[in-house]
Specification:
The complex is a heterodimer of chains A (about 260) and B (about 300). Helix content of chain A is about 75%, strand content about 0%. Chain A is mostly helical. A two-stranded antiparallel ribbon of chain A has the order 1-2. In chain A, a hairpin with a 2-residue loop joins strand 1 and strand 2. In chain A, helix 3 packs antiparallel against helix 4. The radius of gyration of chain A is 19 Å and the shape is globular. Chain B has about 300 residues and is an alpha/beta fold. Chain B has 2 domains: about 230 residues, P-loop containing nucleotide triphosphate hydrolases (Rossmann fold); about 80 residues, Alpha-Beta Plaits (2-Layer Sandwich), CATH 3.30.70.1560. In chain B, helix 5 packs across helix 6. The chains are: A mainly alpha (about 260), B alpha/beta (about 300). Chains A and B meet through helix 1 and helix 5 of A and helix 3 and helix 4 of B.
Chain lengths: ~260, ~300
Amino acid sequence: MNVALNVIAVKTLVRKEMIRVMRIWVQTIVPPAITMTLYFIIFGNLIGRRIGTMDGFDYMQYIAPGLIMMSVITNSYGNVVSSFFGAKFGRHLEEMLVSPMSNSAIIIGHVAGGVLRGLMVGALVTVIALFFTRLQVQHALVTISVVLLSSTVFALAGFINAIFAKKFDDISIIPTFVLTPLTYLGGVFYSIALLPEFWQAASKANPILYMVNAFRYGILGTSDISIGHAYGILVGFVALLFSACLYLMNHGVGIRE
Amino acid sequence: MVTIRRLMNALSIRNLRKTYANGNEALKGINFNVAVGDFYALLGPNGAGKTTAIGIISSLVNKSAGEVEVFGHSIDRELEAAKECIGLVPQELNINQWEKVGNIVLTQAGYYGLSGRLARERAEKYLRALRLWDRRDDIARSLSGGMKRRLMIARALVHEPKLLILDEPTAGVDIEIRRSMWAFLRDINAAGTTIILTTHYLEEAESLCRHVAIIDEGEIIEDAPMSRVLRKLQREVFVLSLSDEADRAPALDGFQTGLVDSGELEVELGPAHTLNDLFRALDARGIEVVSMRNKANRLEELFMRLVESKQP
């Protein structure tokens, strides 16, 4: 493999993705900012006052890391699924397929684009959160690594969704019926310690719980789960999903006849 | 010796087969070579297998069996090297309509590993050559159909491929732009780029290409230099404009004639006669001819005959 060629190709693809994100910023940046502002106002400010504290933090402070993580993963996923499927649908994916850039480079470029959009939106939501509450990062390295790994996992998942998608409906099914329920049930708004034992155990099968809690640990220093488990799951998912993406690309599934 | 001969080919295809998931056998074991520097026409009716063959050569379609080598690089073993040699202008528009013209070409350069400065130089060179430089900051959607076709050519050339594959590049393009594209392609070919062209305008193939292959129902039914192929044409029909009007077709010994209208005479020329024979016969009848033209393009006539002869 020509490494220099692939490095330039990945940079080119990431640049293209960023141009796309900024070109349609009203669709990519603004909506999550508005949605999260509403979450902070309604759940944090209005309802949160009545809830009181959770794990020793006021409710607004408690949900802020979860809401930031929620915006990161939904935007990382959404960017890759819409960009890759859009390229497939509009046939300009062929620009990449005919070029000598490797399948790994195609995956990495798209995933990096998704991660960058996730981080941009996450940063914006963090700034919004600071208008409502005080956040002091307790473990910077954990915070950064968890957000990067989580957005990578969901960007890869978005890539797989786009590979299999045949029509635009197919790229909204997973976010609507899988991603959103898992996110809401992933401990964004509550500590699983509040749940009955059975539902606590059931919640631990939800990978998003680990991401949200590991991120919360990085910012607030509190978590429902072991950070070691969270890293294991995150790294495992990255490896598994990247391998799946590469297998699908190498076999031309959904992209070559 | 065999290896040397293969290396001399820009493209070498051996027993290439493609059967789609629905059972359609698009290619039934085709073989052909394209010599380095050639201008090669790949012709055939709709659904003959041309686009499938091009899709396999350019890695957009998985083959079922066979071998493809591009400048000696097998697409099975040295795909990256093979891809670096190819520039593809596909039949269907495949540009991102919302991207800027300049960015489309620059991005493609990046996918081929061209650095920023070189990519910008090449993008400018080919956008200027294809008269799109002034539109570089416009989104592709705002271009006319002909401009979009030219943009796809600029994009395919930005890495300066050794082999340029054009799948119906002038479809839907007006005659002026088509002629300017022909001139551009002749220049590119003269500069050393091997070109494979598929087109439904057989006049285009006859005018540009030195070698022709005709594919029908997944099989190559003709593969020879253009001049040799045209010599196979046993019968040509000419339309003559007459200086005086006629109410019926004159009988010319040895020629089939018919009136198109009172001022135009259609004459069929068989292998036994030359144009000199025809004009002698016309002279003998005192018929004056103002101008003449082929009734149909020569290659078109031959193409139709070859394709029709295959039908049961």
